[in-house]
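For the sake of transparency, this paper describes our internal protein records without simplification. Such a record has a labelled line for the sequence and another for the backbone structure tokens. Nothing more is needed to write down the fold, since each code stands for a local backbone conformation. For reference, a complete record is included directly beneath this paragraph.
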Amino acid sequence: PDSLSHLSGEPFFAAHIAHFRNTVHPDDLAQLDAAYVKSVKERTPFDSRHRLQMPDGRIKYVHERGETLYDSDGTPLRSIGTVQDVTERTLVEQELAAYRNTLEAQVAARTAELLNANEELEAFAYSVSHDLRAPLRAIHGFSQILQEDYGQLLGNEGRDYLQRVRANAKRMGELIDDLLGLSRISRHQLDIGTVSLTDLAQEISENLQRQNPEREARFEIQAGVSARGDISLLRIMLVNLLGNAWKYTSKSDDVQIHFGRCRQDGVQAFFVRDNGAGFDSQYASQLFMPFQRLHTENEFEGTGIGLATVQRIIQRHGGRIWAESLPGKGATFYFTLDPD
């Protein structure tokens, strides 16, 4: 009695069921009635959270639980239950929900800003890279003419300088091509399907061996490895990973390159492993940044875009990539794919 009187704000004798019902907030009354009728009809426990409007205008939140007792004929006799004041808990929940909604809105807005900035940056990189091609072609073309038609007039030192110009123009062309390729990865419309990574790896390994028949290497490619993804992007990814393994084993004896599937931290992962030059693992995070290289151009050629491209492809497939290595002991690149 004291509890019911406290909740309704009326003396106990005034706080009978009919009067208590009259304190229910008008907007919650239909819901409360429907829940009660349903519980009686289906003979199930009654459970409802609703508001009470106090005589002084304050709002309280209550959690009402109960059940109906029936006679032998199934006629409802009376209902018994409890009414719990949950105002404080409800207000805390509302505050937390409002904070969560505000935070989610801020995150969504920030994400949209970052996506927009990234798209603008990609478009800028594509435009700049594309526009650089014309003057670069002129440098390369005229330097070739100069070398062929006037090379004998330049002397040994002049020809050496000219050769350096041509070599650097060629390298810049490769950088531009790789930058354009990186931009296309982000703009590519994904076409997701089941892809045999085993077949792709086999095809790529055969191409590498055909291009370098003088090299002896053993590829071990696990059978039956497949994944969901965009076949054109996954081919580019494996071309880069297997191509890196091929490149960094060029100075090794008894070359072995492995591709397969494994489990890492309870998750299905794929790997490319070699016994080549390797690297210091403390610098592994730098591998996936454009133009970052852990070996000099004199040691191993390259532009430093390949692994950045690989990471972009894997990220577009909802996965991640990481590497383990020791200098002179080879390297293993692990990656996951979850495009759905």
Remarks:
- DSSP finds seven helices and ten strands in the chain.
- Residues 190-335 form a domain with the Heat Shock Protein 90 fold (CATH 3.30.565.10).
- Residues 186 and 310 are 11 Å apart (CA to CA).
- Confidence is low (pLDDT under 50) at residues 1-15.
